[in-house]
Specification:
Layout: E1 2-8, H1 14-31, E2 36-44, E3 47-55, E4 60-67, H2 70-105, E5 122-125, E6 131-134, H3 158-167, E7 172-176, E8 182-187, E9 193-197
Helix pairs in contact: 1-2
Length: 199
Amino acid sequence: MDSELSGRNVTVTKDLRAMADESLDRIEKIVGRGSSARIVFRSQKHLSIAEVTVIARQHTVVGVAEAPDLTIALRTALEKTEKQAIRWRKSKIEKKRQAKSISAVLPAVPSEGTAPAEEKPRAAAGRNGKASVSGKRKSSGVHIVPAPEAMALRPMTIEEAVKEAESGNRQVFVFRDLAGEVKVLHCAGDGLVRLTEVS
């Protein structure tokens, strides 16, 4: 896997690079070939922070960890990233299985001009002998609900955006990174976080 390691006020040692390469090889087997990784090390007061971003063809996985020691922070961030990659792989396999089983069980979808059998209006005789039509009305269109709380007002790092999304229990969180690029986080209920870059 192609990897880029950088440190902000931190020196990246050979041991850190070797640990990262070993774990990234395992992650590459899970997410598939053609993926790349970016690892950023930072130091903040008495904490060392490691942020691992693995960009695969279909998704992006992010793992962030803080620890007193840089080695521990990197190991924890890599473990989080690997767990998320495994969860994504399992969910992808389950979705494929469910799609086949559901399409085999469900009846054919009616065309746009016709309503399903349960929703066809029924004619019933009223008091004056005239037929009155009753039945369920089918709602049409997409309902869009504005959600200003799902958007960040200030630029932030991926780590800050993940924390903000998880603290607010948001499924989708839109933010700008420090370079000004728009990014979208998709948070699944099982702890999986996907990052999408809007071009």
